[in-house]
Automatic annotation (TrEMBL):
Assigned keywords, A-Z: Hydrolase
Gene3D superfamilies, A to Z: HAD superfamily/HAD-like, Putative phosphatase, domain 2
Domain of life, source organism: Bacteria
One of the record's GO molecular function terms: hydrolase activity
Protein name: Hydrolase
Pfam families: Hydrolase (PF00702)
NCBIfam families: HAD-SF-IA-v3 (TIGR01509)
Length: 202
């Protein structure tokens, strides 16, 4: 087995993203039933994640459906992106960056319109790896096998030549089904140890 590329997820892996409860806060503030915001905005969330809806259209749709004025919309979006970006996993990013140039490194992320600019501004991911593949730019999402195959194509590798790290079990299982050496992230220590073990065995 030869490993040529190492690919990481972002949210829950390179970014620490615990729930902030912001949706519930807004439901209380607007006098809405629990769960109603995600229900009302479901198509916008989905469209934004695969790029069928622009960032501007998402923002306009949120304002219209929830009846937000300009200042409320700005606050709503600030809360959205605060949870989305979370905080940087410094230790894991340093390890990820250290893998170059021995290996090609990439990010494969289920993302949202506007994520590339915000994540680059906040964390500089584009400077730490060779390639970032975002779902909102490709119209595909994990665990769709086509998304993993696209990553292999962009990296010019076969699935068995990739190590992939993600924090969602169904996503990891789908990657394994394609033939990728996928690892379920549980902690920095565990993930780094498992990646190093695979590299040592290659």
């Amino acid at each position: 087995m030869m490993i040529k590329a190492i690919v990481f997820d972002i949210g829950g892996v390179l970014e620490i993203t615990p729930p902030t409860g912001w949706i519930g806060h807004w439901e209380q503030q607007l006098g809405l039933a629990a769960g109603s915001i995600n229900q009302q905005l479901h198509d916008l969330w989905l469209g934004g994640s695969i790029g069928t809806v622009s960032e501007q259209a998402v923002e306009a749709g949120i304002a219209e459906r929830l009846g937000l004025d300009e200042h409320q919309l700005a606050a709503f979006l600030a809360d959205l992106w605060a949870e989305y970006l979370g905080t940087l996993n410094h230790e894991l990013l340093a390890f990820f960056a250290s893998l170059r140039p021995r290996y090609t490194t990439a990010i494969l992320s289920n993302s949202f319109v506007g994520a590339r600019q915000r994540e680059q501004a906040a964390y500089g991911f584009e400077d730490c790896c060779d390639l970032i593949i975002y779902s909102h730019e490709e119209g595909l999402k994990k665990p769709d096998p086509a998304f993993y195959r696209l990553a292999c194509e962009r990296l010019n590798i076969q699935p068995h030549e990739m190590i992939f790290l993600d924090d969602i079990e169904v996503v990891v299982e789908a990657a394994r089904a394609v033939g990728i050496n996928a690892i379920l992230y549980r902690s920095n220590q565990q993930a780094i140890a498992e990646i190093q073990a695979l590299l040592a065995a290659a």
